Each structure stands twice: as C-alpha cells, then as structure tokens.
C-alpha cells in the first residue's frame, strides 16, 4: 500500500455511521437469503486468532483463519473496530461463489459497505442459525419465592380465553399518581384484566392491566437523530396497576437495592456498551447474567420493514433467559473494582436498570442451542409511557424476605456455644446452617437462597422451605412432607410442629403454659391432647364451632416443645454414632424451631389476631369496607415484614443484648423432656417481655397492613423488646446444641472429623422424610425417649 491508496480508519466510525450504512444498504442486505439478521457492534475475532504483534495485523493477520465464525468461537478484543454484524444461516468461503462455485455471486455478503461521501463501513459475518424457542405452558418458579413482598423478578400471570400467560415484573414505575409494575404486554391482556402473581404461600391477586401499553414504534420516532427510515423498534411492554403498593418493593429479589436509571439516548449511546456485563432476575430462570453483544439487532423483516431490538444480550453459560422471563429488567453492572483479583460481592455491586427483556432469539450451532435476549432501553420505555422509575418503595426489603429472623438467630447462636470443638465445627459450617451476620444485614443480601429451588437450602429454613411443601406439583420440593393441597397452600404434619397455642386459660393456672412449668406431668402427649380437647369443648360452649373444629384437627394441634424434644434425642443419637453430617443437619433444622419458640405469636391463641372481636378495614381492590378479626395480618407484618425491614437496626440491638461474657449462660440439659420444658420456659419468657396482645394493639394502632408507616410504628413500639426475645432465642438454641453434644459425648469424636461438610451430603439427609420425621401430636410420643 502506498500513501496514495485509500486507507480507512474504522475505529472512528460512530453509531450514526453504522446505522446510516445499514439503512443505505437496507434492500441490498434484505435480498440475501442467507442473512437472518443484522446488528451493529464491534468486529468479532476468532478466539484462536493470533494477537497482532505489529501495526495493521489486527485487520490483516498473516495467518488469517477462514473457518466459520460463530458467536461462541469468537470474541471482542481491545482492537476490535466498529462494524455491521451480519448473521447468516450457513457459512461459505469466498471460493464457493462464482462460476465454479455452488452459490450465486450476488448472494455473497460484502466485506465493506461504501457510503456516498467516501466513508467505508466493515461487515462482520457471523454464522448463527436461528432455531425455534422452547416454551412452557404454565409458570413454574425457579426456586424459593419471597414470603412477603413482591418486586422485580416476581411472576406476572394472566388468564385469557382459557390460556395462561406468564411474564416477569421488571420494576416499579409511576405516572405521578399511580404506581405500576412494568412487565411484558402479552402478559397484561386488555385494559382492566385482573393480574396475578405468586408468593411462597401461593397465588395472589395483585392488580389490573393498564391501557397504557407499547407494541412497536417507528425507529425515527424513538431515535429521531438516527437513520432508520423503514424500521420499527419492537416493543412489548405493559403496565399492571397495583391494588396495594405497600405489598411491593422497588428492589429486585436477590439483587442490591435498585440504582439510578441507566439512561440511554442518541447523545450518549456508544459502542462502549458492547461486552459490558448485565444481570437480572427472571420469574422462570431466576438469576441470569449476560453481556451486551450487539446494538439495534434486526431480527425480522416483513413487507420491506425491519423490526429492531435495542440490545442483543448473550447469556452467560448456563444462565440464559427462558419463556416467562419477558418483562425482566437487565441491570448494567457499572461496579468499579478496587481489587480486580477480589471482585465485590453481589450485594455491593453498582447496578443500573438498563433494558427490558421482551423476547429472545435462539441460535443453534453444531446442535447446541443458545438463547439470546432481545431487550429495549428502559429509558425509552419510560419516555414513551410517560412514567418514571420508582427507586424508593420499601428499599430496605431485598433478598430474603421472611427469612431474616430464622437465619439471624442461628448465626448469633454459634458464637454463644461454650464447647470449643463444637463452636469451631459450627463456625466452619455456618454457610450450611445459615449466613454470616454481615451478609444477613445487607439490604441486598446474597443471591444463594433465591436461586435454590430443589438445590441446597441453608438448614435454618429447611422446615419452612422444604418440609412444609408437597413433594410434587408446581410448588413442590424434593423432600416435601405435606400431604394435601388446598386453595391457600398445602398442609401436612410438619405445620403444627412450628407453634403451640398454649396461652389458653385452663384449670387453676392462668394459662396451660404456666401449668406445664408448674407440673411436669403436663409435659406429656396425653396431657396436651386433653388440653386441646378442653379448648375445643370450651369453644363449642361459646358457640364457636370453627374454633372447636380447629382444636380437634390433628394438623392444627401445635406441638413445638415436643418437636424440640424429638430433635434433642436425634442429635444425641447422631453424636453417639459419631455421625457429624447427621448432627449438623439436625442442629441446623432445630435452629428454625427454637427461632419459632422465641417469637411470642408462635405460642399464642392470638397468633394472627383475636377472633373474638372485629375491626373495619378498607379493601384496596374492591374499595369497600370489610369486617376482619382484630389484628388480622399481624403475624407476617411483625415476624416477616418488620424484622426484615428493620434488620440493619435490629442486629446491633441483639448484639448488645448478647455482649456480656459467659456464652449462652444457661445450664446444660440431659434429657429431651427437660429440653421441652426449657422450650416452654423460653416461650413463657418471651410472652412476658412482649405480650401477644401488645403486638396486636401496636399493629392496629399503626394502621395495620405492611405499609412503611405501619412497620415504623410497630418498630417504635416493639423494637427493643424484639431484640431481647431474639437474643433469648439465640441463647436457648446454643444451649440446645451444646447439651446434645455433651450428652452424646461429642468429645469422643476426633477433631479431624469436624471439618467443612459437603452441602449435598447434608441435603441428602434432609430430603429423606424419615430424617427426624414430621409427626402430629397424637403420633410423636413413640419418637420420644
């Protein structure tokens, strides 16, 4: 090449230049039967191509590879230049075109597109044959769902003409008057169609579809400064008008609190976005990760018009989007790393809501299918719908809604264990028992549990997340112990093991709880069965037939202290047999029950309100007043919503309660019956500190429900005492662990065996229904020693 020959500096090409070239050659590219799509991006270099050692070798390598370039065998490098990406069904070398070749020369994709003013735009040909997508008829959750708050990543369900359609709630937006969940239009239906979602307890009705929806817009209307004469920006975005905004958080489940909008427009949109990491949470796939592979992907042409998606996103291995993820928001990971060798954990990453996933493109290469996500700019969506992103709705709620109490009590208890070997063993396996306290206190929390499904679940939540489930069906779990399904969730023998309504008045004692503490003969299965029969007779005499049936129902007769007794016996046996996996599994699950015992509402007939009196509440959907029991809804508001919302303030108070010397400061016990009595003692203490009726009164006085004002009011009234009862729960749990360890002669187990355990070995134990089996009160006696 001489100084007089034309030389093109492709690195100076702008997004505008690339779009102008594609627009100019619109019909030319459209005529290529082999071309299935185009986009703009950076030139892809085959991964085994030698890196350039001299100037110019990047564009013209001395030993250039000629085999098919695909999305998986090529990459963007720091010297990649701007280009138009042309995706073709099949690959053919240049010699296959022409008189002696197999193909018409007119069908060859040009290497360069030349504009009238002398600019030249390179074309990068990529083999990426389109394939049909996988679909699923009904929604199936990817893992454990939130117990309480809905938010980004929650499923959106609509039923139209006998068919069910699912999508994902991407984020919350507001028009200044109402708040909406943004999702895919196809899961909204016509205006005012009722929309549903799912929590752990089952399906919930959340609102109605809005008439404000998007389908497609002319490219020139969305991007007036960019060329695109015969193109549509494809959109599939709808809004769900929420019945009760306080049921929602602006955060995405399992991700850090939502950051500021990743605002994209003609003036700042550049190819620097290529290869940038993004992540989101789909209702079907759970946590997904990817990278932005191309911009303005033309995926279809009809009647001479192109249909274009703003972003083509390549999935990370094993983390692709699927049917039901439409509506999900992709978050741009804009984190600045302080130490590249130790990247910041997910809760501390800087994520910016960037794009709404509305569709997918499946490419097939050598029989392997890869699902790419097509997404549109969230800033454009907000502009076209005339709404703004909501970032401050229940910001403190993110990650593990409903788990905070159980996990934190287990984490606090480990430090209180006196036996050095046992404490070290539990500390080494804290990730199996629970999470460390700093992680639990993070507003974003880590992603692990939210992605679990039928994989490993930290033990402190196994009784809720595994055993209180069916072992089959849509919301089933392997290892589930429930036996029947109903309109409000499933039921089975595990459920009554979590509580004991023993503050009913009986005999000379004010409560049956007091009678158990005063006389050990009341700590028998027969005495408890007689108590429930007495309560049933009393309810019937008062005209409360529902109450009478409840007290006689074997699945409603709470037996929490006997469940702790059963676990003490099991842990002792595991220690005696030197079965460290069995002991660890039982110890972690037992943390859940001692956590339940430390919550006053788990030991009271007022567990979710006082049925003997009613209050008038305004129904958010019907707009009408209704009569409900006094305190109805208090259980989840106090134990789930308030504790999760106030975790950052609660944990320092608990640490202060536990700051003195002496560990758990409780005597070690040597029998299951003594441990059952200690559990009743704990329930009595926490009821004295935080009387159940006081919780109900605070809830009603604060306005009921789970609005921020209600949670703030309850925290002001109950916060200090909540810390005190949770600290007691941690003390009694540490005492339970150490008592079983010492009584079973844990000192005989070689220290070399007290190592890090494999979570899958632990899971293999708890999915067995015979592992510390879940039994009703009338059946558990045979298990107790």
Question: What can you tell me about this protein's structure?
Answer:
A six-stranded antiparallel barrel has the order 18-19-20-23-22-21. It has a two-stranded antiparallel ribbon with strand order 2-3. A two-stranded parallel ribbon has the order 8-17. Mean pLDDT is 86; it is low at 132-137, 395-404 and 436-453. The longest helix has 36 residues, at 708-743. Helix 11 runs antiparallel to helix 12 (545-552) and helix 15 (634-645) packs across helix 19. The protein is built from 20 helices and 26 strands.
Q: What's the mean pLDDT score?
A: 86
Identify the CATH class of the largest domain: Mainly Alpha
CATH topology of the largest domain: P1 Nuclease
- Determine the CATH superfamily of the largest domain: P1 Nuclease
* Strand runs, count: 26
Q: If strands are numbered along the chain, what order do they take across the biggest sheet?
A: 18-19-20-23-22-21
Total domain count: 3
What best-fitting shape do the alpha-carbon axes yield? elongated
Report strand %. 15-25%
Q: End-to-end distance, in Å?
A: 93 Å
Percent helix, as a range, is: 25-40%
* Major β-sheet profile: 6 strands, antiparallel, barrel
What ranges have pLDDT less than 50 throughout 5 or more consecutive residues? 132-137, 395-404, 436-453
EC number: 3.4.21.-
Protein name: Probable serine protease Ga0098714_109514
Keywords: Antiviral defense, Hydrolase, Protease, Serine protease
Organism: Bradyrhizobium tropiciagri
